[in-house]
Amino acid sequence: MDIILASTSAYRRQLLGRLQIPFRCLSPGTPEEQLPEEEPAAMAGRLALAKAKAISAQHPSALVIGSDQVAALDGRIMGKPGNHEMARAQLQASSGRTVHFYTGVALSCAARKLQKCHVELFSAHFRELADSSIENYLLREEPYDCAGSFKCEGLGIALFRRLEGNDPTSLEGLPLIALTGLLAEAGVAVLDGAP
Fold this sequence. Notes:
Elements: E1 3-5, H1 10-17, E2 24-25, H2 40-58, E3 63-73, E4 76-78, H3 84-94, E5 98-109, E6 114-126, H4 131-141, E7 160-165, H5 168-172, H6 176-185
Parallel strand pairs: 1-2, 1-3
Antiparallel strand pairs: 3-4, 3-5, 5-6, 6-7
Helix pairs in contact: 3-4
């Protein structure tokens, strides 16, 4: 079966690679703006499905995986910082607080009229962070393309008091536990393939 990841994210490509199934990546080119009054979880699910459907329309027989992550502090969405100053501001705002991450994962196959979506919640409880610690972290890891301004799979793990959720890969950008379940429902059993 042709499996396509509707993403050009190196993080998501590496995560999906852990499942050891053949796949290719295509950019969905989907706008990622928040709709008026849209809640973070709804936005993550909507965008994940929109990405999958965009590629599925171009490759109707393929099984397309879409994903999107939305970070929220006190219900307000925190986007990817894009630069050092914005990342510093995000981490200062997160210091001693909890940021909730909503990671949507979706499957779409136009030929099979298949559309499935799941949103995984994961919470990051931040330590109290000194400005010098924030600055040192940002200079060492430069997480400017990451929602929340950190990479939990790297040095960013030192920013937290506690992580809370069912699927740690959702914090990295693709909830593999949920995805393997969706794939199984679509007829792709990850563990049934030959080694």
